[in-house]
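Attaching the record inline, Q. Sequence:
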Amino acid sequence: MTTEATDYQENSQPILSVSELSPKKYIQEAQLLLAFAAQRGLMVEESIVSVIVRAKHMFDEKQWTVEMETEFWMAFNALAKLVSPVSVESLRATRSIEWSMEKSAQQNVFTDLLRYIFGQRGYSVAERTVNGYQRASLLGLIFLLVCQIYWVIGSAIINDIEKIPQAIDVLEQEIDSFEKQSQIDSLQSRSFQQKENKIQEYESRIDASYDTLNSWNSVWQLSFFSGTPETTKKSASEMIKARFTLQQNAKFVLQVLQLYLLPLLYGLLGACVYVLRMLTTEMRNLTYELESNIRYHMRVQLGALSGLAIGWFASSPGIGLSLNAVSPFALAFLAGYSVEVLFSIMDGLIASFSNHSKHGNDQSRSGNDLY
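Structure, as predicted:
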């Protein structure tokens, strides 16, 4: 038994406490906070400075004692409270890293030159995060503009197709009224000819609109259909059916873009704008930490969901009427930027319904008690 215990003690390593494991690391962190306080002109007590400076020299001279460690932790705690909300992690995240100290043995002058040209020199974690969100916001904005322009073009074509037949019907009714008259003077005859020319212009315009709509539909049909368009002539009934199908497909895609994709993209863009604004503030105040990325990733996802929820609310019959004064896309952007407002409204609605239900149950229970 004793031999086994002795072998275990000889083969195993002693368990070290945090202070025994890395006291130098915490001394360096204290010096980092002390340098920040000195650069910002903060009033640091002389005793705190003396303890931290003495701790460094005593550790280097291997004179680290229990009393020195106690004084160091007390001074470190006081210094951390003084510079709060700035912390060691935020200073490290916002401080530029010298890339020359991270070079490996395999790197050469050419590799160093490439890193310098493409902007990998001296970037901090916070700066890399900002650059990432800037690129994501730019790509999202470009994709949003493409979808928005595509939606606007399709809406204009559909609106033109639906209004032109109404204008043609009005002109045909006026022509019928002219034809029923027994006598037509030269002025009325000229007006009659102008209306016929206008009808022909409208018919040519609606043919061009359907051709444009066919090209518009081919953009989203490209991934589903690989066949070539038919060039054979169709009968009048087949042409009407084909045009009706073409128009209904376009309306379906427009509805999907308007109710789902565009609100989601606007909410996503609003969330990215909020994240960039907060990152700018945290970098200026040196309060950014690496753990903030988790919060920002969740914020972007919630912003996209908030924009999508606005699209749902805007499509509701009762709520959509009250949102006509403000564009649903603008509301989706605001919802993505200020997620808290949307969720606070939703929480308030849920709380009001739950309180109403609870109040109704209490009244029914009290009524049952009377019997």
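The longest helix spans residues 125-180. DSSP finds 14 helices and no strands in the chain.

More tomorrow.
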